[in-house]
Amino acid sequence: MNNRDMPLSRSSEHEILGTVIIEDLLNSLPEWRSVQDIVRLSIKALTDLAKFQNSSIKELEYSQSDFAMKNDVASALAMKANLADLSRTISETRSSLDNKVNYEEIRSFLDDRVTRNDLLHLLQGKVSVEEFRTAIEFKVDVKEMQNEFRSLRNSFEELKMQVSTSLQQCITTREFSALQRIVEGKAEITEMNAALNEKATKTSVANAMHKKANKTDIEEILAEKANLSLVNGLSSAIESKVGIASFNMLASEIDKKTDTVYIERLLNVELGKKSDQTDLESLYSAVNSLKKEFEIKLQQQSILLGNYINDLKSETEMQKVTMTNALEKKAEFRDVEKLSQMVLKKSDNEELNYLILSTKNDISNLVEGHQSVIKQDMKKLENAVLEQLGFLDNKMRSFEGDQGSIKDLLKTTNERHKFELEDLVKSINKAKTEDTRALRYDIDKIQRELDDNKRAKYEESKSRQSIQELKGIKEELDFKYSQLENKIKDMSISTKEILMRNEREVENITGNIKARTEDLQYVQNCIEDFKSNSIKKHDWEIQALKLQEEIEKLGKEILLKASIKDICTLLDIKANIDDVNHALEGLHTELDTKISVDELADKLKEQSCINDALCSENCVARWLWKSGDLKTGCIPWEIQTINTCPENFIWEKDKTTILSLSPGLYFVMFGVFSRRKAVVQLLVNGEVIISEGNIGGKILGKHSSGNVVGCTCAEFLSLPARARISVTYNGEKCEGFLGLKKL
Questions:
Q1: Is 386 in the same domain as 484?
Q2: Scanning 359, 505, 517, 674, which has its CA 20 to 30 A from the CA of 179?
């Protein structure tokens, strides 16, 4: 370049000297006086023209030094993208833009996100990490909670075993039916008491027996008496209602046997041996003692009502013992009856029988009087028992109402706990799915954007700004990760609190059930005691069956309830903190390789600018003429090869005009390929703008392949709005094209 500049500088110096000499000559008037003015003016104009051309030549030389060489231009153009590559990249960018998120979606997505100020305001109300750690230190860990669950499970199983054992210890229907048959075979208490009141006691019988005659005395007396045949005859005579004569004869015969004095003495002796008023008083005292014993028994029964045994088996054993005692007493009464019958058989004296009957009647009257008193007392006792039974019935009704309330409470608590656990599981799963969806959406979006920007970023180097942005992304992801961890920890704490609350409610319910079962056992014992003493057997059986059915229902309901084991299995199925942390670590590692939203927005802006520029530069259309046929001298455009802006370039097949809607500057290219001379004209709205032939200033050569070179033209036009462009042709049959590009 320096060698080229040297001659230019020398020639410029010579030219400057020449112009100076000419100006001096022109300014010297004496030398030009003889020259005409026209010659002088022409020479002066010539010098001015030479100056102007000299300056323009210098400017061209200076500007030529800034231009590139042809080889450099060719190499640079070779490295640039051609039209096919540009169209391909434009189509790719268009497809990528179609897959991109719209501005409105990005704006709505950003509107859904929380701002930094709101986030800081929300974080101020949250617990700090140190406070959370201190709270976690005071909280129970998972092992302790599992141990407590195991202990609760064991206690629940023990309670279940106790209930099952208590149910097993209860009397069965077979034993109850056998016991019922035995009891039906026995006498009732009222009948027993009535029989006891009618009978004499052992002491009275023993006293009466001691006061009676001995066997030897009776035998002696019988030996002194008449023969048995005479007595039988006398009895038969009395039965046959003998007359007075026969009676007198019999009396005379009796007088002959024994005298009256001896009989009176014998009667007095016998009457002295019989019971007197003291015996009656002793009998009365015995009846009173029986009454006192009965009252003592009643008191004992009332005491037994309060302190009765809880187990039905022991109760049946006690009933068996009482029945065996009653049977033994029955046997003793039979012996007493046998003894009385023997005494009656032994005593054959009519007067003795009369006295015995009279004493019996007196004793029976006294006993009946005492029996009336005892009946009144028994009525009072029955009224008291009925009152107690009414009280117990009210207790049973209240217990049944409480039992229904307990069932409702258990149902409501179980349903509420199930709903709470289901809501908690749904909220956790929903939060997980929402977070994973958001993360996957961000990851997919970033991946697509990275794939789109791979080629553009391939030639770029990593800068400090990208590293800082990646650090910012990492910090933002760490912050999101910490937020997610805090959410999961809060959820775990809430689940623990719900489980603790469920355990407390289960403990309260079990305590209530235990208390109710104790009350039920107490009421059951009281009812069974009353039933065993005063209620009928049928009612007792019905009540026992009802209570047994209620107990079975309670046991079934307790078995149907959700146990701590079921809750633990449900919780074990769920994802723990380690699984969540592992998944979050994987997401964290994947997100570390991604770009931030700000960088993505910047790249999208750059890409949108590039796309706008490319779209503005790529408003191109091209049509072909293949058939060689003409329509009224105009070329019909049959094929459209490209049209990037169909809303501006309107084309119809086999029509001769192309409609361009928007006004502005256009680059027009058209041409035909014919062997002979041809004339081509470009018309805008029917007016000829350009006329072109294939011989003007060109040397056309022939080629073996055919029409290689044609008549072509490329010009810049300023078209009006709704311009109709057409091309006329005059020549042989050939092919052609027309191209438009909006600038």
A1: no
A2: 517
